[in-house]
Amino acid sequence: MITHDTKIRVWYKHTDQMGFVHHSNYICYYEEARSDLMRSMGLSYADMERKGIIMPILEVQSVYKRPAFFDDCLTVRILLREMPTARIRFEYEVYNSQGELLNTGMTALGFLHADTHRPTRAPQWFVEALAAAMKESRFL
User: Fold this and answer.
1) Would you tell me which of 4, 75, 112, 119 could form a disulfide with 37, CB atoms 3.0–4.6 Å apart?
2) d(Cα 55, Cα 36) in Å, to the nearest integer?
């Protein structure tokens, strides 16, 4: 299993009229956590696209437990429990600075050839990077 924490500061524009972080922003927080995890493993979405692979979102789930507010410092924990095939599934936990669980979520992404938009298995170099990360204690 791989876990990785990303810190995000809530901007004023992320909040709604009630003063809560608007629900749609959690999906953006998930994306930031995925990008940060990939960068920490020496990968990036830009590199994948240059190599001819795109990863569209296939499914999103988000469960709201407590609100977050302007200027909160959030920790978005991303979890990868299994190696990908033609899909990859990430789970998320969002905590405030007091350690309270605010949100849980999941995204499933597919691997597609950029030129044809046809499904493909996760590239071997991607799987190898994940396997190497799973062996490192900093990702447990």
Assistant:
1) 4
2) 15
Tens-place pLDDT, residues 3-13? 999 999 999 99
Instruction: Enter the tokens of residue 25.
Output: 């922003």
DSSP string, 57-123: EEEEEEEE-S--BTT-EEEEEEEE-S--SSEEEEEEEEE-TT--EEEEEEEEEE-EETTT--B-PPP
Task: Provide the token pair at 13.
Answer: 């524009």
**Nearest by Cα to 20 from 85, 84, 62, 65:** 65
Q: Which of 16, 36, 47, 72 is catalytic?
A: 16
* Active site (annotated) includes residue 16: yes
